[in-house]
Design a protein that fits this description.
Largest sheet: 3 strands, antiparallel
Strand content: 15-25%
Distance between the termini: 90 Å
Structural class: alpha+beta
Shape: globular
Strand order of the largest sheet: 3-5-4
Length: 161
């Protein structure tokens, strides 16, 4: 008679044997899980992969194309369409701020506070303006409207040599 034995994890008063469990997520994954949960987003594999690239490296400005390249370099094989969709979902959830610097390309800013930017024309680079920019007056909103946000982008180009 043949008897088949399957491995059953050992249990004690504290639950299953620790060796049979997957390791807990690291701090970066935990941080992303919390960000996504607080924003009301389900933590899919794609959102976690892109969230770690976006939110664990400090403040940054990315385009969909630059984030796609980072994801590919990190062996997180996603389509460019998935990157675009995820960036749009993160923006709608308030995790990112979209900045259309030149009318063609959008940047996504991990700092969602109101702050101005320099856009370096010809270099496709977006940089935060250092503190010190102040407005003495902003226009009144149209009747029946309110100002939702103020975007200031100062376009720079290199001086001819």
């Amino acid at each position: 008679m043949d008897i088949q034995v399957s491995h059953i994890p050992a249990f004690d008063d504290n639950g299953p044997d620790a060796a049979s469990l997957e390791p807990p997520p690291d701090e970066g994954v935990q941080h992303c899980l919390q960000l996504l949960g607080n924003a009301g987003l389900r933590p899919t594999r794609q959102r976690l992969a892109l969230g770690q690239l976006l939110f664990l490296g400090g403040h940054r400005h990315v385009t969909a194309e630059s984030l796609y390249e980072e994801a590919m370099a990190a062996n997180a094989y996603l389509s460019l369409a998935t990157v675009y969709n995820t960036l749009n979902q993160f923006t709608e959830a308030g995790l990112l701020r979209r900045i259309a610097a030149d009318g063609i390309k959008s940047f996504f800013d991990t700092d969602t506070s109101v702050h101005p930017h320099f856009y370096l024309e010809g270099e496709d680079v977006l940089v935060d303006v250092a503190d010190g920019l102040a407005f003495t007056k902003i226009p009144e909103a149209l009747p029946g409207h309110e100002i939702a946000r103020l975007d200031v982008i100062v376009h720079l180009r290199r001086k001819p040599t």
